[in-house]
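Hey,

The postdoc asked me to send both predictions to you directly instead of through the lab channel. I've kept everything plain text so nothing gets mangled by the mail client. Protein one:
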Amino acid sequence: MFGGDSRITEIPDVDSDVESKKEKECPISLAAFEILRKYSSGVKKMKRDSVMEEPSCDTTSNEGMKLSTDDILRIAGTRFIQCFDSHHAADQAPFMMLRHPFESSFYGLSIEDTKDVELVEFLLSSAQKVECQQFERGSKLLSHCELLCSATGNPVQRVVYYFCQALRERIDRETGRHIVLSLQSIQQTFQQFNLDEAMVTITATYHAIHQDIPFCQLSIFAGIQAIIENVKEAKKIHIIDLGIRSGSQWTILMQALASSCHESQLELLKITAIGTTSKPAIEETGERLLSFAKTINIPLSFKIVMVSDMSDLKQDLFELDSDEAVAVYSSHVLRSLLPEPDKMESLMKVVRNLDPCVMVVTEMEANHNSPFFVNRFIEALFFYGTLFDCIDFFMERTEPNRMVIEATYCCQAIRNIVAAEGEERKIRNVKIDVWRAFFGRFGMEELELSSSSIYQANLIVDRFSCRTYCTLEMNGKCLVLCWKGTPVLSLSVWRFH
């Protein structure tokens, strides 16, 4: 199938006659098509030129050319659009506008890339059948996918592997197959493995995420710089951390305060950590921070505010002084409240009453909150494909921490986005435009990131020697961190009117 001919094979027809008739009644949604077309049209011109070249006599000339995971996904998306368009042109006139940007030839692809493009096509086709509730056909396509992907393969094969797991779980739940086992499995998994809770505890894997992959440090250094600039005149600083995790960001803040003019005027640095679970882990974080503060002569007070639920958070739980500058820090916290708008509103009202001089917000720059499964699936596939590509750049394929990152943190997020619905679906990342609209309701004003904050982020990019791939972009006043042109994180700074 793949010999010297690098053309991609057509997806085999596994329809029954009945299912073929159903397919005409249930095409992929136009919204999902537009999402896929948006990603597919983004392939860089240099890649387009290379894949459109006719084959030369030298059949090994392309062996050294390896496309990125993002490019593979985009090319597969264009193939999917082309195949779907040709099969449905007669019945779906609106889709005639969706044109394939590469004509019909992919002779420039290496054999490995060809296989990977085909693999992603199978996955997209399976997801589309599941969207249309054609579960038998979707399951057959997925079975073929499962034969070609692997948790230890290249980034494309690995990300497809975890999406296959999630899609298989969704099919089982939708069809009632092994329903008791499936429901118990999902409930137990998310009770035993909470993504946000897991990040509180310092482990070798968390340390590797922080040390080996630049995005954590990029957002922390730029965000801490923004806080320093907004509290620089204060003798008492009160940091309220909505999700402290390891607390490494506050060692950076303390180092910056110790090396600046604050050293002579700082009377007290107070950190209040808000938690709903894992109090012992937060206490350990506090002990580490207090110990570190002592070594550099920073007067630190560490407090914990534990609530069973964010809706129980009240202003009088905080020890506030009238002469302190309050800064609120939120890193990957607010997205967890998106399924529960009442709790989100309650939290924001409390934050507003605290009257912070600055609020720093870091969130994933992705759209995983669509109520429509296939839309969510496509967005998540491209987002996590980018993450897997990034991890592949910074970590060896056999690195144990890499395997844990993908098999736990990434896998559980993918499963939640793809297989869960309703209140079970906790991973609901949204983009900065959504946050702007939300914060605007509470009278929050977005602040411009200073040149010093952007300089700090650029220092991290240079430290990791990844400037070719890791780029910084501005979306209005918000800093967006990208990998090979795909947004990954957003960092924004706010204050109340």
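Protein two:
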Amino acid sequence: MNRRPLTVGIIANPASGRDVRRLTANAGLFSSTDKVSVIQRLLAAFGATGIEQVLMPTDMTGIAAAVLKNSQGRQARASHWPALEFLDITLRQSVEDTRKAARLMAERGVSLIAVLGGDGTHKAVAAEIGDIPLLTLSTGTNNAFPELREATSAGLAGGLFVSGRIPAEIALRRNKRLLVRVPSRGLCEWALVDVAVSSLPFVGARAISRAADLAQVFVTFAEPQAIGLSALCGLWFPVSRQAPGGAWMRLDPQSPEALLVPLAPGLLQGCGVLAAGSLEPGVAHSLALASGTLALDGEREIEFNVDDRPSVTLDNHGPLSIDVNAALAYAAQQRLLAIGREHPQHPLNLLSRDNPGE
């Protein structure tokens, strides 16, 4: 019986890290060239840890084409990149491209999906793949959920897990999420990091860029170094990823207390703080406004009115992701990256290649 090759997926959102919030705030952009570089570092790490096949979607920005071209080069051969397969997807240049790629990868039985994007991209992938773990890489505008780290080390952690050398109880982390329910419409959506309640009546341009438009924020976790809406709680009422609960905050420009918050890269605004507190799992919270819009992970998605009465509930049944720090700490303890004389990257083999006449 033939063994199935060790297969992972890579999804890079071509549009992540390039929206108007970064342009207006003078923040750096994540170009297609930058994403190609990240993917190539991932492929080198995957190849070094025994991954045999990688699935990727096509795109209209040249990411897949550049990776394919570079896969035929000397560096790719020297690094033993896995075999690449590009999924045939009818591109719409919307989030549906990401969702479709994630569904196809799940159907193909990948063991892991590496995601290059922000909070919204990771949420779109997670919604389609059940308990397939995510390897999160930050290339978006709101980057609270994907931690900022070097793709090479992330790829090593993911590859060692997929190859069976790191047990799931060490390598995987179950994440929290926020469930948004609108019973009058039979609607249940969820967010990985934050849900914001805005007085703006329409979805419109989706992004929230003015603190004055915010009335309430719920978060699964909030770190002081965060950028985006979760930074409100992160700088006032922080809560860790590992904590069982989350946090909430009430906001009003007229409040006597105010907080300076980085709502986007390079965009600092003062926010009036009325109150803040803990968010317990399983407890439904009503909204401070009778009508307005709800932003999930930084983008307005749901309009509501007085008849809708949405609620927000924290639970601990979010997606699985690779805990890179824990995985690599285990790899160090177990010497998982120790290599013998037969390994092509052993220093003696490298020396003989560099000095073929000796």
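Summary for protein two, as requested: Residues 20-25 have pLDDT under 50 and may be disordered.

Thanks,
C.
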